[in-house]
Each structure stands twice: as C-alpha cells, then as structure tokens.
Amino acid sequence: FIQSAVVLKAASAAFITEISTTGTLHIIKNKENGLYFLEWRPSENCEITDTDNQEGWALVDTIEKTSPLQINPITESVSIKNIHKTLSSSSLTNGSCEKTVLRVKLVEYKGIETIKNELRIVDWENRVNVSFLFQNGGVENLSSYLERSKILRASKRRRNFFHIVEQQGTPTDDKLQKSFSELNIEDIRCNNSKYNPKTNSVWNNPYTADILTKIANVPNVLISGRGPEYRPNLFENNTEPDEEKHELIEDENNKLPERPIVTRNPPLTARQWSEFCTSDGRISDPERVKEIIFHGGTESEIRSDVWKYLLNFDLWENTIEQRDERRARLTQEYYQMKLQWLTMTQTQENNFTGYRERKCQIEKDVKRTDRAYEFFAGDDNPNLGKLQDILMTYMMYNFDVGYVQGMSDLLAPILCLMHNEAHTFWCFVGFMKKVVSNFDMDQKGMKIQLEQLRTLMSYSNKKLFNYLTENQSENMYFCFRWLLVWFKREFSNTDIMRLWEVLWTGLPCINFHLFICLSILDEETNVFIDQGYTFNEILKHVNDLSGKIHLEKILEKAEAIYLQIKLVKNLPDKIRSIIGMELINNGDDDGDYDDEEATDNSSDQMMEEKTEEDKIRFQKKLEEACDLSLSYMFL
Where is this region: Disordered (predicted)? Predict the structure, then answer.
C-alpha cells in the first residue's frame, strides 16, 4: 500500500523540521518478526508546505544541546518514543531530505483515529503521537486496507477509532498492554447507563486496583469507587500542550466588551532621550521611556543607544563612568571567549563533534542570511565575518544552546545597527535571554507558546478558532515561524527593528508577541473563512503574507485586542496567567512557566559571586595561556 500527497502534521520534536512536509506513506512488514510499520518519506523534491522557499528552517532545525549530534548510517534507526528515524549523513551536510524516514511500529500503539482527511496514531495514554494529513483524500482506503489485513479492529464504542490487534512477534510487555486494552476500558467508561460498581468488583479492591493501574497505565481516577459522572475526563487525546484537544474557553456571564480604538504615537526623539539623561549619565525615568517606545518606537538616530538599554547591555541606573567601565569589562570578556575558539587546535576540533557540527552549520547559515541587504551583500563582505564570529562566540558562551538555525536571523538586524562586534554580541545575548526557550531541543518553549496562542484565540476570536478547529488547523503550527524568530521573515529590516523594540519594552504585558499573532490572524479571518481555506491553504497563505503586513496597523490592533480582553470581568485564570495578571484562584498553576528561568537566574548569580582573588588568579592563568599560545604560533 502506497499513498502519495501525505503531509506530516504532527510528530515528536525529533521530526520538527519535517512537520508540514509533503511525502508518501507506505505500509511495510518486517519479514523476520512479522510486524507492520507505517513508513513516511518526504517527496523527492522536498516540498515544505508551510514555507515559501525559506531554506528549510522555518520549523526550527535544532542541534542537540548537551551531547554531540549523532549521525547514523542509512542502515540504522534511531528510536525516539516508539518512532524510528533513519537519517543519512548527507542529509545534514547537503540539506537533502530524500533519505529522512519516519517509521511507526504499529504494535507499540493503542490504535488509529481518522478524522476527515487526517490520520492520528494514538498511544496507550490516549495521546496523539503522530498525525498525517491526506491532501487528496484516501484515509478511508488506508484504514479499510489495514482492517481487511487484520491489522486493525474497529472500535464498537468510539467512532472512527481502530484498535491495533495482536501481531506475530509481539514482545511480552506489548502483549500485556494489549491484553488490558482488550478490556475496552474506554468503551465501558462511555457506557455510563450500564455502570455498576458491583459488577466491577476488581476495581473495588484498592490493592488490586493499584497493581492494575501500574501495569496497564489506567488512571487511578477511573478505578475509584465514584461513578463516572464525578470523574474528570482523562481519556481525551493528548495531554501535551501542542497535542491536547483544546477546550473552548467560554465566558458564562459576558461577551467580550467592545474593542477600543488605539492609535500610535510619535517615536522617542533625540531631544526627549537627552531630557531623560541626567547630568551624570543615568536615565531618570526608564518606565516612561519604555511607554513612549511601546506606543511609538524610537527615532533611527538614537536607536543604537536605546537598544543597549532595552537589551541589558547598558543599565538604566548606571552613571557614565559605570557604563564605560561595564562596556570595557564586557568587551574584554567577549574577546576572551572569542579567543577560546580561535585558538582551538585541529585535533581538538576533530575530537569535539558537537562543536564541529555547530561550526559547520553557522558557516552555512551566515552565507545565506539577509544577503539582499547592502550591509551583507557581496562575497567578501567583512560584515559576514563579524556575523560568523559573533555566532561562534555565542556558541562558546552558551554551549547548552549552542547554535540553532534561526539565530543568525535574530542577530543580523542588531549587527546592522550596532556595527561594533562586542556591543552587538552582548545585545544579542540580551535578546536570546528573551527567546532562548524557542530553541529547546524538546521544543517545550514553542509548545507552550502555541498552546497559549490557541487559548487566547479561543477567547478573543471564537469565529476563527471554530473554523480552524473544523479544518484541523487548531494546533496553530502555521504561526511557528512567527514565534520562532519573532516575525523576522514577515517584515522589512526597518519594520522589524520597530517591532522588536516595541516587544522588548515588556509592555503592556508579558507575551505581547502573541497578540501580534492574534492581530495578524484577525485581519485574515474573513479571507480564511470566505475562501474556505483548508490546513494546507492556510499555511501557504500565512507565508505569502511576508512583506505585505502593515506594521503600524497590526500594532494598533494587537494593543486593542489586549485592552479588550483586559476589560472582561472575572477573566479566567488561564488567560490571566498568559498576560501576567494576578490569578483569582490561588491554587491555579496554569501560569507556572517561569520556574526554569528563575533557576537559571540564580545560577547566574552564583557564577558572579567570585572573589577578587579568584578573578585575579583566573586572569593570570588566561594571560599565561595566551602568551604561550602566541609564542608557539611562530615556532
């Protein structure tokens, strides 16, 4: 069985670069153990359905943080959460995706669910692990084929759901899991009218129930003595943020108030900026400065100075002397870190796979970053060298993150503005602290943002949210590129500088970049619905918006949507947590997204608590190492 024009809609983080790519779906059988697999391969032309010739990185191509990147021969498979990925060594270096394979071992899953043109692979915890979209139809043909082949068995209670039946060669633990699945616990749960605790005596014994729960992975709440009407519904697909079926947030008391009218103000001028500077160099009212920037941006002639404060290179409270001392110290630190990779020997590099792979990726990305702009045009442009050096040094500064495709796009506008290499680096560090979770290997940060965006959409634009849900687009994946690089690919250099400085103020709330997404989508609501766009067409349309979005209009509407939501009485805690408002219910933990950041900050503080003796000793060792290194260069 072979089905063409199949889009990979959802998968684990390991396949994030293949999501929304068109390919072919095969049913294959292992001759040795008789097990069946679904195998998906991207098309030979490597069509990315939600990118418009964006070099394949629109949905983040991460390089593993804490260990060297593992490149496996084509004959090997890397198992990731029951999903197998075959990857040739050439697919990374040459950008080819012809040999990238996603292989799903069916016996390790509970079943398959079909919804319109979508096929979902469901695990034993009722989570959707993999999802395919059939562009030309054919889902019914595949499910019918698998059912005729005795691979699937239709559920008697759950519509459009097929259980994966016993197969030859099933491991013992899989057989145990499948034996419990044969109990059709969910089917029993759905039949509320026939629920009788006496006939389910096995569940009434706490000891037995506990054992069965651990073995069969059945939620404790299911096997409690209470009737089903009191139990939370734990059987819906996917508890992960980007996979769960989103529940539309309803305001029981009020509809949304009328959306206020917002107009933009003039930018912060050089005269205003000088008035905020005290005689000793401090900035007298940082919050007022941020308010002016939020409502109007800054004039280009002072932008370089203002950005240094917004990105924490300069501190608002520092005097001129303190500022100059800090700049000198950070500049020295930058060149010390740069020296680390400049003096790395070839032997070291050969023995450091993670470093070598990141270096290779940086070199490739720099060559294709913003080459249409004069600042980076030409083959021998020295600014390309600066761009590469800063990215290499950041890799040494934060090797846990290292380098991920997309970072060069965040850095380029800062370098265009600053020109100074060290100053650009530290401003880039400040920017990365705001968006570093976008580049997590497990995509946790992106999943949280997509879920938050979906929550806000369900509350602020129910018309569009319902339409997206009906067309299997409620996962908001078409906004991935917007969030990943903060709209860098959607606006001109001039506009992106204005947008970024607005977002860097942190006003009027946390996560205001999500309201930028809401604003753009609000503008396109009627287009999506009137044209009857499907998932694939929405992706294409969103990417076609690049260069066509009116920034000032979008900023006005984004602020208006925020003010409209904030005016709601008894705003749900789930919305409050996203925009940083105090929660109504103290026990609500929906907004606990900042624990990791708090931990990181405490670690930074510990690192800064070096004694003066330690700093002098370290500096002496560094100078000795540099002197020896330089002397050996001339031997």
Answer: 237-263, 589-612
CATH 1.10.472.80, applies to 444-587: yes
Architecture of domain 2-171: Roll (2.30)
Equal fold, 2-171 vs 330-439: no
Q: Per residue in 439-495, pLDDT tens?
A: 888 788 998 999 999 999 999 999 999 999 988 888 898 999 999 999 999 999 999
Q: Is the pLDDT of residue 628 over 80?
A: no
Nearest to 162 by CA among 170, 154, 150: 154
DSSP string, 418-439: H--HHHHHHHHHHHHHHHGGGG
Q: Please answer whether residues 128 and 181 qualify as being in contact, where contact means their C-beta atoms are separated by less than 8 angstroms.
A: no
What long-range pairs does 424-430 form, CB within 8 A, spacing at least 24?
A: 424/386, 424/390, 425/334, 425/390, 425/393, 425/394, 426/311, 426/313, 426/330, 426/334, 427/307, 427/308, 427/311, 427/313, 428/311, 428/390, 428/394, 429/311, 429/394, 429/397, 430/310, 430/311, 430/312, 430/313
> Rounded to whole angstroms, what are the CA distances from 235 to 48, 232, 268, 454?
33, 9, 53, 21
Torsion of CA 75, 80, 83, 87, to 10 degrees: -30
Residue 522 identity (one-letter amino acid): D
Show me where the domains of the chain are located: 2-171, 183-230, 330-439, 444-587, 594-635
The overall longest dimension of the chain from CA atoms, in Å, is 89
pLDDT (0 to 100) of residue 627: 54
| Measured distance CA(236)–CA(186) in Å, rounded | 10
Higher pLDDT, 601 or 532: 532
Token pair 């000088």: residue: 274
Residue 593 or 274, more confident: 274
**3-class secondary structure, 242:** coil
Tens digits of residue pLDDT in 15-25: 777 788 888 88
Class of domain 330-439: mainly alpha
Residue matched to tokens 């043909």: 141
Give the mean model confidence (pLDDT) for residues 305-325: 97
- Beta strands across the sheet bearing 161-164: 78-80, 83-86, 101-105, 36-42, 22-29, 2-10, 128-134, 118-122, 111-115, 161-164, 152-154
| Cross-strand partners of 164 | 152
pLDDT band at 624 (very low <50, low <70, confident <90, very high): low
- pLDDT given for residue 621 in this prediction: 56
At 614, is the pLDDT very low, low, confident or very high (cuts 50, 70, 90)?
Answer: low
What residues pair up with 111 in beta bridges, in sequence order? Answer: 122, 163
pLDDT of 586 above 70: no
Mean pLDDT of 56-70: 35
| Reported pTM | 0.59
Count CB atoms within 10 A of the CB of residue 284: 11
**Among candidate residues 632, 597, 563, the one with its CA nearest the CA of residue 261:** 563
Whether the Cβ atoms of residue 110 and residue 151 lie closer than 8 Å to each other: no
Helix (H) or strand (E) holding 119: strand 118-122
The one-letter amino acid code at 4 reads S
∠ Cα 448 450 453 (to 5°): 110
Strand partners, 40: 25, 102
